[in-house]
Design goal:
Helices cover about 45% and strands about 15% of the residues. With about 350 residues, the chain is α/β, with parallel strands linked by helices. GO terms for molecular function: DNA-binding transcription factor activity; transcription cis-regulatory region binding.
Length: about 350
């Protein structure tokens, strides 16, 4: 046809109402499979794509999602954005990002102002910002749709995606003990973050169950940055004797451990095993490659995007009750059996 196809054309050719076509476009689940497939074929044949401005005006929505974060790990943020954008591209939404400073007194007002100023329909919040109960309450009080990504079950399941870090760190502890390691050093994340608490407690609790106690001087608090990994690794490796293993709260800090070990002439994994958490791109690009816990960040972010769109568009989806994701252990070159 000569003119640009419209939703009316799709509805007429499909033999359904405009509302049904709209449901298919928006990913609602209350349309039969056969009807959905028929409508999608017409959409594909016509080359139809919704006009975002008209669509937004008709629905009193902007079709913008927000992403709020305060996280120094650029690789993690990149994975989150890729996961969210994979859903946005299917559903006709755009993404607006907003870095904030979680440790300032006015960060809640700052986040709420961002939502209002940007006219977004809903927001996805990353840790550690997502751990703020006061921010979640402020958003609820203003009827702002939100979904939190976190390491603890802090909210209604329609509003949260949880990484079961505690269980994953239990698996790592069992693996390291199976290699014969008993003297273990830990670089934790900031101890006021739920994620750092969950990982530290999950790791240490399982070690204790297995008869391994971690000495107080073997636990050093890091800042989840490469630089703090370097600083903390030095503090551990100058101890006499140094630990057999260092677990770092994320891969950024674990990479810092590898750097310090190299500088000090400590062979990894022959004299020191090193493990991290996240399994971002860095884990396979350092030497030796890093044993780590893989958190499926892209999949978690995509799930969060599906949840927020379901809240915005007021429809039921199979994703609303799905909230818990378990990371899993990836064994690489940076760990080996303890020397006797």
């Amino acid at each position: 046809m000569d003119k640009r196809p419209t939703i009316n054309d799709v509805a007429r050719i499909s033999g359904v109402s405009k509302r049904t076509v709209s449901r298919v476009i928006n990913g609602a689940t209350n349309v039969g499979v056969a009807t959905r497939e028929k409508i999608q074929k017409v959409i594909d044949d016509l080359g139809f794509s919704p006009d975002k401005q008209a669509r937004g005006l008709a629905a009193s929505r902007s079709y913008l999602l927000g992403l709020i974060y305060d996280n120094p790990d650029a690789l993690y943020i990149d994975q989150v954005q890729r996961g969210v954008l994979s859903v946005c591209s299917e559903r006709g939404y755009e993404l607006v990002v907003h870095p904030c400073n979680y440790d300032t007194e006015n960060f809640i007002d700052n986040c709420v102002h961002f939502v209002k100023r940007s006219n977004i329909d809903g927001v996805i919040i990353l840790p550690p910002v997502s751990e703020s109960k006061k921010l979640a309450a402020a958003l609820r009080d203003r009827n702002i749709n939100y979904v939190r990504m976190a390491s603890v079950d802090l909210d209604d399941h329609a509003n949260i995606v949880v990484s079961d870090d505690r269980a994953a760190l239990s698996d790592l502890a069992r693996y390291l003990v199976s290699l014969g390691h008993r003297d273990i050093g830990i670089i934790s994340g900031p101890k006021h973050y739920y994620s750092a608490i969950e990982r530290l407690e999950g790791f240490c609790h399982t070690l204790k169950e297995l008869g391994v106690d971690v000495a107080e001087n073997r636990i050093i608090e890091g800042k989840n940055t490469y630089e703090s990994g370097i600083e903390c690794a030095r503090s551990l490796l100058i101890q006499s004797p140094p630990p057999q293993v260092i677990f770092a709260n994320n891969d950024e800090m674990a990479a810092g451990v590898l750097k310090v070990a190299h500088e000090m002439g400590v062979a990894v994994p022959e004299s020191l095993s090193v493990a991290g958490f996240d399994d971002n791109l860095l884990a396979t690009r350092v030497i030796p490659s890093l044993t780590t816990v893989q958190r499926p960040v892209v999949a978690m972010a995509a799930l969060a995007a599906k949840k927020i769109i379901a809240l915005i568009e007021h429809y039921q989806t199979e994703h609303q009750d799905t909230y818990l994701v378990k990371p899993h252990l990836i064994i690489r070159e940076s760990t080996r059996k303890a020397q006797k």
